[in-house]
Amino acid sequence: MKKLPILNYTIKNQTSERLDVFIDGQIVDASTKAYLDEWYDDQPSVSFKSFRDQILNSGRKNIRITINSQGGQVTDAMAMHDFIKQLENDGYTIETIGMGLVCSAATYILSAATNSKISPNSWYMIHAVSGGAWGTVEDI
Question: What global pTM score does this model have?
Answer without folding.
Answer: 0.79
